[in-house]
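Hi everyone,

Forwarding the result from last night's run.
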Amino acid sequence: MKRKLIYLLSVMLLLSLTSYGAIKIKGENKQYQGEGLTIVTSFYPMYIASLNIADGIDGVQVVNLTENQTGCVHDYQLTTKDMRTLSGAQVVVLNGGEMEEFMEDVLDQQEGIQIIDSSAGMKFLTGSTHDHNHEENGDQQEDSHVHNHSNINGHVWLNVERYMKQIQTITDGLCKIDPLHEGMYRKNEETYLVKVQSLKGEFDSLKEITSGTEIIIFHDSFAYLAEELGMEVVHAVNTDGETALSAGEIAEVVEEIKLHDIAYLFTEEQYEHTIAERIEAETNATVYVMDSLVTGGLDKDSYLKGMKKNIEILKEAFAVKNK
């Protein structure tokens, strides 16, 4: 027990050093003097993190701007209801990594809101995001499966170590804005980090058998899961409900699978799996449906449960292939 406590304190110290100076708070970083604090989060992963950090603190409420079932917010558009929600916020917690471009103009006009960018100072993976632009002519055919709003991949919460840094950054920001409740924020932070750290241990053990494995992903969020496990993403195909791959694009993916002898296709549970299943039928690869943790209920343990489910799927996948 003593050894475990020392280890946790070391982890928290490392996270503190990593996030020091990486807190991005808009405006003059004023301490909040009101009777109640409303924290508005941009979308589901930030909601669950903030819900844990602010758990049980009187006068502090966490509200998710987008519906918990919205999913990825690349193409989200603010509603009248969202504008009302933002008008009542003192703090807005963002994921960062250009995930919240839909909010930028509105937030620039909100003078009284302080913004915490949970991934400030973090180096992002690069790769496709979402652009629904499918050209099939000339030189563009090779890149027609890439959905570029930006070259930044902002889905950092799917790497547990990065998610722990986000927890640290959110906590540091809230403590600066609301120092009256710093002790409770810190206590909640420690409690949550203990739980998330247990996931990190499971991923580290799993990495012993996954490291170096070549995979194909059907949502670029899984690039961070691959990073966590030392896997190499050979091809990222985005199938987000509005995207249809041409026969030529599917053939290209099939060719890559055969060329690299790829056995694992990781797709997202919130979208249809038709394309992945079609590719599976034409190869020896197997489709595994993972959770990108962008939707869920009000349970503050949703991230933990979703990641544990992903871990079990990965264990099953590699147990089958290694028989």
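Confidence is low (pLDDT under 50) at residues 2-7, 13-28, 129-149.

Cheers,
N.
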